[in-house]
Amino acid sequence: MAITHRLNTTALVAAVAADVGTTPDAVRDTVMATFDAIARANASGHDVAITNFGTFVALKIAKRRARNPQTGEPLTIPAHLVVRFRVSDHLADAVRRRRRRVTIRKAPKGTKTPAAE
C-alpha cells in the first residue's frame, strides 16, 4: 500500500492490514500490543532495538538545577526517565534516498545487503 499522507494509529493499522491482506480489525490488537510492549520496556528502563529500524532508548536524566522562567526562582528538577529514538543507518539511508518501498526485514543469511525492496 502506498503511503500518501501522515500516518496516525488508524491509518497505520489500515496500512498494515493492506500489506498483510487482512482486515484492520484483525491487526489492530497486534499493532497496539506492539506499542504497549515497547512502552512497558521503556518504562522499566530497558531499550527496545528493532533491527534495520532503530532503538527506543530509555535514558535516565540526573537531577539538575533550573530556573522558573516566569519568576526567576531556582528549582530542582528530579531525576527521571526519558525516551529517545535512535534511527538505524538502514532507515536513515532509505529516508535520505527517498526509497518509498523500503523494508526493515533482515537480509537472508550469507548476504551483506538488506532484504530486497
Q: Mind explaining what this structure looks like?
A:
With 117 residues, the chain is of the alpha+beta class. Helices cover 34% and strands 23% of the residues. The chain is built from three helices and five strands, in the order H-H-E-E-E-E-E-H. It has helices spanning 9-20, 24-43, 89-96, and strands at 48-50, 54-61, 64-67, 74-77, 80-87. A three-stranded antiparallel sheet has the order 1-2-5. Strands 3-4 form a two-stranded antiparallel ribbon. Strand 1 (48-50) and strand 2 form a beta hairpin. Helix 1 (9-20) packs across helix 2 (24-43). The two termini are 13 Å apart. The model has no long low-confidence stretch (mean pLDDT 90).
Report the C-alpha radius of gyration, rounded: 19 Å
* Secondary structure: number of strands: 5
The sequence of SSEs as H and E is HHEEEEEH
Q: What level of helicity do the residues show?
A: 25-40%
| Coarse structural class | alpha+beta
- How far is the first residue's CA from the last residue's CA? 13 Å
Q: Which sequence of strands runs across the widest sheet?
A: 1-2-5
Give the rounded overall mean pLDDT: 90
Question: What are the segments in which pLDDT stays under 50 over at least 5 consecutive residues?
Answer: none
